[in-house]
Amino acid sequence: MTDVQTAPPRFDEASADVLTYLRQAIPIGTWTVTRFDGERQIYLSVDDTDLGLSSGDSVAWSDSMCQYSVTRTRPTFVDNPHAVARYAAIIEKSGLDVESYVGYPLTTSDGKLFGTLCGFGRHRLPETAESNEDLIVLLASLLARILEADLQATAVARALEAARRNADTDALTGLVSRSGWQRLLEDEEARFRRFGDPGAVVIIDLDDLKEVNDLQGHHAGDDHLRSIATILTDVVVEPGIIARIGGDEFAILLTDATATIVDDVVARLRRAITTRHVSASMGFGLYSITEGLDGAWRAADAAMYIDKMSKRPFRENTGDRAAVVD
């Protein structure tokens, strides 16, 4: 008898099935599974009939009604939220015509908040809505278990891919190579989309490698590249991968990093690069479900180019080809 290996259930597929079921059990305008990334609420899976929400949309956590449901041990049912001051303020700010809300947290076994299972719509709740309280708790519990299984499987896959990337290293710097970087983005795209992970791509381009090579020789240029690689690996302590993607261009994929964390990483990199008297231009792009990791890379590259162009008048006027302007 042959053992059949089955893949663990995927969180996004299970989420879609749960929302379809809830649509029948409690037919309000929108059902969604969301992710709380520490700053924002991201709509991962959406079953929407009247509010125009889509997967990838997001709001600040402070502007979400779910912030008040995650502290409760039972589902929150709100009929006529306009009558409750804290909900009314959120509805007015959002501009959405919401007359009902249901919310319940999705937490992992260690008690960490992942997101919510919630619904809201333009009409009042059905009279039988609260009789489905135990159903919502059960479905949320099942989703949380599937989430953990999927996260564990993803962690194992990432570990295997990290071992494989050892063969995709740049010989000069020891960082991930361009081919390894491209495979990394392909591997991570589905995971970022499935879990709504916050993250970013950072691009760093050396401004003066050609001058170093021309004036001091290619051995000095190689030392220059190794120096920037050391700076990047010393500064970036957050989860992420650093790659050399061109002759004088480096890229960083930051995972599980909110906008605030990304801002902090970029600021630290700028300070470290300036302190080491290296001239480099930098830009970053935040990940979004709608644009994907490729979109974050394009945004980072465009921002880096703007940074580089902003230095050109200074460099041309002073004649200092290695000046650092941040």
Automatic annotation (TrEMBL):
SUPFAM superfamilies the record matches: GAF domain-like, Nucleotide cyclase
Cell inner membrane keyword on record: no
InterPro entries registered for this protein in UniProt: Diguanylate_Cyclase, GAF, GAF-like_dom_sf, GGDEF_dom, Nucleotide_cyclase, Rev_trsase/Diguanyl_cyclase
Keyword annotations: Kinase, Transferase
Annotated PROSITE patterns: GGDEF (PS50887)
Residues of the signal peptide: none
Residue span, GGDEF domain: 197-326
CDD domains, per database record: GGDEF
Record flagged with keyword Kinase: yes
GO molecular function, one term: kinase activity
Alphabetized PANTHER family for the sequence: DIGUANYLATE CYCLASE DGCM-RELATED, REGULATORY COMPONENTS OF SENSORY TRANSDUCTION SYSTEM
Protein name: Histidine kinase
